[in-house]
Write a structure and sequence with these properties.
TIM Barrel; disordered N terminus; alpha/beta; 284 residues
Amino acid sequence: MRTAILTIIIALAAVTANAETNPFFVFDNGLRGENLKTIASQLDLAKEIGFAGIAWRTDAPERVKEVLDGSKRRGMKCFVIYCNLELKDGKMVYDPRLKEIIALCKSTDTMIWPNMTSKQFKNSDPAGDDIAAAGLRELADLCDANGLRIAIYPHVNVWVHRVEDAVRVARKVNRKNVGVTFNLCHALLDEAGPRIPALIEEAAPLMFVATINGADSGASKKELPRIIQPLDKGTYDVGIVLRKLKAVGFKGPIGLQCYNIKGDPKTLLTGSMNAWRKLSDVLK
């Protein structure tokens, strides 16, 4: 009896430890190549390597449905749908397919993942905040009716250029289903490496998603191939990010950025997954 109870306790402890580890998903830009022409082949590779799911993008609604349904069948999840919101002529505009995509994502907990651009306002200019907040509230209402959240995606060289901008805008929107993303590569491209723990601390109350990748310490913003590498490459200690995410209590999904990485996807993603399994011990 004592042995049986001990076995159950150990099993429960293992389940709890696994549950506490943040889900790890792969960007769709890491699932491209000669043998990955179909959505099914991309999902199969992500599943084979061990990802909890994928990120997708604004796409034909029937393709988004294929991603959602295919992920579910494989025991995975489409965590986010990337899109662009533009401040233009005093309002926020976006791809008309987005409304149909939001409806397709109903009750999946897939997040809408927007970068925010503008030709009217300079990067990081708070003069665009009121327009952005009004548009995001409307989008937030639509998402809320479908059980979805919005995680603003800071991207260098656009209006929401930094995570600080995303936090400022999300606070102005003031909706429970509007939060932010912390992107390691975009923080490094902004040459904010030394401030990363402080940036995560600032974003933590609103953080829905984080993204990581391998990178070299000290790379300049002009050296993109050094700033976005497979997770098992580079000299930057990604543990800095993961330890801080744990310290602030972040339990959300973490994505693997793969933009413009050259090479065989299976080999590269397998190396990144092996690195994740070692690095993610700090999150347990």
